[in-house]
Amino acid sequence: MNILVCVKQVPDTAIAIKLDAEQKSIDRSEITYVVNPFDEYAIEAGLQLKEKYGGEVTLVTMGPDRADETLRTGLAMGADKGVHISDPALEGSDTLVTAKVLAAAIKGLPYDIVLCGKVATDDNTGQVGPALAELLGIPHISGATTLEVDDAAKKATATREVEGGFMRMEVPIPAVITAEKDLNAPRYPSLPGIMKAKTKPVDKKDVASLGMDPSSVGLAGSKIQPMGMSLPPEREAGRIIEGEAEEAAKELARLLRAEVKIL
Ligand SMILES: Cc1cc2nc3c(=O)[nH]c(=O)nc-3n(C[C@H](O)[C@H](O)[C@H](O)COP(=O)(O)OP(=O)(O)OC[C@H]3O[C@@H](n4cnc5c(N)ncnc54)[C@H](O)[C@@H]3O)c2cc1C
Predict the structure, then answer these.
(1) Do the Cβ atoms of 179 and 116 come closer than 8 Å?
(2) Residue 7: which residues within 8 A CB-CB, separation 6 or more?
(3) How far apart are alpha carbons 51 and 131 in whole angstroms?
């Protein structure tokens, strides 16, 4: 089975984000990056399918040179190879352009299933997987919390969480499935895995090699033009109520009534 997994490099959610001088993007100078956490579930799902059916897991990423680290992490988990789409012309690409670029790369590869994360923790749109499925002309199931693939019957069955319950869905494969966090428990890269990942093949692609016009990607090719970004207002310092428990509880109730006005 040929399994493709789309992986995105994102800022580590544990770090404090600062904005750049123009307040239109984040200041990336002091950021540490990780594999988008939802993509780790997608990689794990891909590895489990390979263990069941054989074949190969290929990771696909679009991002600058540093996104190679993301591929190496997935390769260390056990994926076989990577495709890295990197080109200065991609700067400022919005969600649809991102999906078009990924689709152009994927169209040149054999695939039975395409796995994505449900959402990327930085831009947070959740649009790339469904857009990719549309562009590839195949069905999709978003936010899968379970996934079974029947390679012989060429179908995938997944569960999605919906308001107050669960929905089971079946699609013919090839299909795009986006992974919710309950899908599995992603494995950690092993030390031998980390060593092997250094020499696993990564195919470098740019916009021209995907047969795309540079003016159709990046900020120029994007319908979404950023107006500005802002950070949430700084939280006010907390207040510690001193004293015995009974008196402190009374003071807390008074503050909640008189100042916070929630009682
Ligand atoms: C203003 C702006 C500027 C941008 N500038 C750049 C830039 O300079 N360079 C650049 O490379 N991108 C750039 N992007 C693209 C951006 O980082 C996202 O990749 C894109 O907008 C997808 O949106 P999302 O992260 O919300 O994806 P979501 O739809 O939330 O992601 C869902 C899943 O789709 C897959 N996916 C998403 N993005 C990628 C990816 N890049 N590679 C592989 N799989 C992916 C992953 O499986 C992910 O879990 C820019 C976007 C905007 C809006």
Answers:
(1) yes
(2) 35, 36, 39, 42, 43, 59, 60, 61, 70, 71, 74, 117
(3) 28
Do the beta carbons of residue 6 and residue 128 sit within 8 Å? yes
Going by alpha carbons, the residue nearest to atom 33 of ligand 1 is 117
Kindly state the tokens that stand for 101. 């670029």
Q: Whose CA is nearest to atom 3 of ligand 1?
A: 92
Rounded Cα gap, residues 177 and 132, in angstroms: 10
pTM over 0.85: yes
DSSP helix/strand/coil, 181: helix
CA distance 35 to 66: 11
Task: Give distance in angstroms: CA of 118 to centre of ligand 1.
Answer: 12
Radius of gyration of the chain (CA): 22
Query: Coil, helix or strand for 148?
Result: strand
Domains of the chain (ranges; CATH) run 2-216 (3.40.50.620)
Nearest Cα residue to 139 out of 98, 96, 117, 172: 172
pLDDT higher than threshold 90 for residue 49: yes
* Ligand 1 geometric centre to CA of 241 (Å): 45
**Chain segment 131-141, per-residue pLDDT in tens:** 999 999 999 99
Q: What residues flank ligand 1, with Cβ below 6 Å?
A: 6-8, 36, 38-39, 42, 60-63, 90-95, 98, 102, 116-117, 119-120, 122-129, 224, 226
pLDDT in tens, 155-207: 999 999 999 999 999 999 999 999 999 999 999 999 999 999 999 999 999 99
